[in-house]
Amino acid sequence: SILGYGLLLSEFYAQTFKVDFRGKLYGGTNLKFFRKGVEGLYQGAGFNADLGLLYIPDNRWSWGLNFKNFIAPYSTLGAINWDTGASDYLITYTTVGFAYRFDRQWLLATDYDFSFNTGRKALWHIGTEYQFQENLVLRTGYEQVGDDVGADTAGHITMGLSLQITNWTFDYAYHPYDLLSSGATHYISINYQF
After folding, report:
1. Within the chain, which residues score under 50 in pLDDT?
2. Is residue 116 a contact partner of residue 85, using CB atoms and an 8 Å limit?
3. pLDDT in tens, 125-138
4. Structural element, H or E, at residue 43
5. 10: Cα separation from own chain's centroid
6. CB-based contacts of 143: which residues, under 8 Å, 6+ apart?
7. What is the model's pTM?
């Protein structure tokens, strides 16, 4: 379960300190509760939290910072604690990223995931989208993923598109996975806006 909250920090800062603040700064947090197990066997539960900032100085740039699972990474406070007495410590990592809009149609975004205390390799993600018409958007990207222990990485090309027809939106995404026998996953979603 996830409970999230966000607010416009730049407006609060400008009113509190009576200064002009260029652009908009948003802040937010997620409180997360985990419950795992097999009925009648072992059960585990725990919680953790994320903290994020988003700065938009103008209509072209966006900058973001996210601290994921930042509560006590090496204590049982932020872990999944099992009824056997064991604990699964959640990976704490930081993501920094930016997006740049060349014009109304073309957007480029990238982010970088790293961990201060786990020794896991850092991961790059980069993507772009182009809006050909008002109702058609094409996307492509490159994603680095790590193995289970974070010692090695692999890269994948991803692709997707969105098509909007009146109040309906149809989304498709292609994502390869080395660990699946088929080697790729196709995501399809349909949304209707009232």
Report:
1. none
2. no
3. 999 999 988 899 99
4. strand 43-56
5. 22
6. 123, 125, 155, 156, 158, 175
7. 0.77
